[in-house]
């Protein structure tokens, strides 16, 4: 039982393990994007090779995170499964579109999950973050609705970007644009809903 208890690790190390693989993919892609590799008589673009390299890097990082903390969230596991599945399709069919589509599926899944909770009158987001953020139930419902819409917007944006713009631009937006936009959105929502003020207020009362 003790082995299943989540263990705290250095926040910088956690960020490195969670954000390192996407950044590694970005760097590898930049180095390989203009090259063509031939394996078994089949030519693969730099993007395909970068994708193939990225998958084990991500799995190794997740394995280290699990080893250090003793825990992986269901969303992390789901994301890993999707990345492996679409990475395999990208390699097997030698078609970069599969890997680009996985971002749409991930954001779409998150939106669907939150939407199912809302239909049931629940905030699944509160189940995950309520211990860390002191929000009232109605605020959690508001945040959940807004985040569901944000995930839908990101899914739609990804479809538009990969279908109409260059691979270079998609890689940059996928690596930096979407995460920064999501972080900025969440920070603004937490501030507007009083999460930071409530936390400080609770500290003053204690």
Estimate the global geometry from the Cα principal axes: globular
- Could you list the spans in which at least 5 consecutive residues all have pLDDT below 50? 198-206
Largest sheet: 2 strands, antiparallel
Element order: H for helix, E for strand: HEEHHHHHHH
Helical fraction equals over 70%
* Mean of pLDDT: 88
Estimated structural class: mainly alpha
Q: Please give the alpha-carbon distance between the first and last residues.
A: 33 Å
How many helices? The count is 8
Rg measurement, Å: 19 Å
Report the count of strand segments. Answer: 2
Spatial ordering of strands, largest sheet: 1-2
Proportion of beta-strand residues: under 5%
The domain tally reads 2
Folded structure, characterized:
The chain crosses the membrane at residues 12-32, 44-66, 72-93, 105-127, 147-164, 176-196. InterPro entries: YciB. It is found in: Cell inner membrane. One of its GO terms (cellular component) is plasma membrane. The chain has two domains: 1-95, no CATH class; 96-206, no CATH class. Helix content is 78%, strand content 4%. The chain contains eight helices and two strands, in the order αββααααααα. It has helices at residues 11-32, 46-69, 74-93, 97-119, 124-129, 137-164, 167-192, 195-205, and strands at residues 36-39, 42-45. The chain starts with 10 loop residues before the first helix and ends with a helix.
């Amino acid at each position: 039982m003790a082995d299943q208890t989540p263990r705290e690790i250095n926040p910088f190390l956690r960020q490195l393990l969670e954000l390192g693989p996407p950044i590694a993919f970005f760097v590898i892609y930049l180095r390989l994007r203009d090259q063509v590799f031939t394996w078994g008589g089949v030519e693969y673009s730099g993007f395909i090779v970068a994708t193939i390299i990225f998958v084990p890097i991500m799995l190794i990082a997740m394995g280290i995170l699990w080893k250090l903390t003793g825990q992986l969230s269901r969303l992390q596991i789901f994301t890993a499964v999707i990345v492996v599945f679409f990475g395999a399709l990208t390699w097997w069919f030698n078609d970069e579109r599969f890997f680009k589509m996985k971002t749409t599926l991930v954001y779409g899944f998150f939106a669907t999950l939150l939407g199912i909770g809302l239909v049931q009158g629940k905030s699944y987001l509160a189940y995950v973050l309520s211990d860390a953020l002191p929000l009232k139930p109605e605020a959690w419902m508001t945040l959940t609705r807004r985040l569901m819409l944000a995930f839908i917007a990101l899914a739609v944006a990804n479809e538009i970007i990969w279908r109409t713009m260059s691979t270079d631009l998609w890689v940059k937006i996928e690596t930096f644009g979407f995460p920064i936009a999501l972080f900025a959105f969440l920070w603004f929502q937490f501030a507007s809903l009083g999460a930071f003020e409530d936390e400080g207020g609770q500290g003053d009362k204690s």
